Amino acid sequence: MRDILTSNLDILFTNKTPHMSLLYIQQRGIMLLNLNRIVNKLLPVPLRFWCRVANIHQSVMVIEIANASWKLRFLYEQHQLLSALKKQILPSLSSINIKINPDLDKKKERSIQNTEKKRHLSVQSAAYISNVAKKISQKKLKNALERLTKLSIESTDSFC
Questions:
Q1: CB 3.0–4.6 Å: which of 71, 101, 110, 132 could bond 65 by disulfide?
Q2: Residue 54 is inside which H or E element, if any?
Q3: Segment 75-115, tens digit of pLDDT
Q4: pTM for this predicted structure
């Protein structure tokens, strides 16, 4: 069995060990999010969705790319991005390290599929559901069907 070292949780909440405190972790996360936003603004639009800033350590920025084809595309933009970042916010930045993260590719594919597969309820179907809701005496089911018809009406209004 593996030896598990126990530690005092107070270490996380105090600033005695600055690299282990929750405040440091939170500040670092916010810094990486802000840096990611800046990098996204500097990149061309097609490339923005397939990469993100993963880390910055000892003046080297680590960027994760979804796959090898986007990595190749990023390599064309790398020099311009590095010089823009040096001029604007990180003068000490020396290089950009690129890592391929296949999970990033899978997440983007799922989000694209979800936006493409939105289902819409036709006006005729909404009318049928509304008629069924009027005839049902169960409160829960009746309310659910009425909410469904209201959503279908709202979605058809947004298309007009």
A1: 71
A2: strand 51-57
A3: 999 999 999 999 988 999 999 999 999 888 776 666 655 55
A4: 0.59
Query: Is-contact 65 71, C-beta < 8 A?
Result: yes
Q: What is the mean pLDDT of residues 121-141?
A: 84
Q: Tell whether domain 10-104 is in CATH 3.40.470.10.
A: no
Domains of the chain, residue spans: 10-104, 123-159
Question: 45-83: b or e for each residue (b if 16 or more CB lie within 10 Å)?
Answer: eebeebbbbbebeeeebebbbbeeebbebbeebeeebbe
- DSSP code of 119? -
CA nearest 57: which of 93, 6, 7? 93
At position 98, the amino acid (one-letter code) is I
- Asked if 63 contacts 39 with a C-beta cutoff of 8 angstroms, the reply is yes
The span from the first CA to the last CA of the chain, in angstroms, equals 64
Contact 152, 126 (CB under 8 A): yes
